[in-house]
Amino acid sequence: MISVVAKLTVQEGKVEETITAFKALLPDVAGEAGTLLYSLNRNPKDPNTIVVIERYKDKDALTAHSATPHFKAFSQKLGAVLAAKPEITVLEEIDLVSK
């Protein structure tokens, strides 16, 4: 499994617009075969920071996600609202406990 943590710093006054855009993206992401989790989160101590936690079946699924037309279109919109370059961390899952 592959996990991704994407930390996004959004421009002042653009957070709600960004959250709305993410929510519109979620149904398309949910339909991707290898995407197992796509969680949208906000840091309450820094409301302009959005953290997306993602989980994929394998590296190919992550590559497929990044290549979808809906993600490419979303990424272009996202670039217009970010205040800084996204911090993306790709992790190899070692073990998991889930309820």
From TrEMBL:
Coiled-coil regions listed in the entry: none
UniProt keyword annotations, A-Z: Monooxygenase, Oxidoreductase
GO MF, one annotated term: monooxygenase activity
All residue ranges annotated as the ABM domain in the record: 2-91
InterPro entries cross-referenced by the UniProt entry: ABM_dom, AI-2_Isomerase_LsrG, Dimeric_a/b-barrel
Record-annotated membrane-spanning stretches: none
PROSITE patterns linked: ABM
Full protein name: Antibiotic biosynthesis monooxygenase
Species this chain originates from: Desulfatitalea alkaliphila
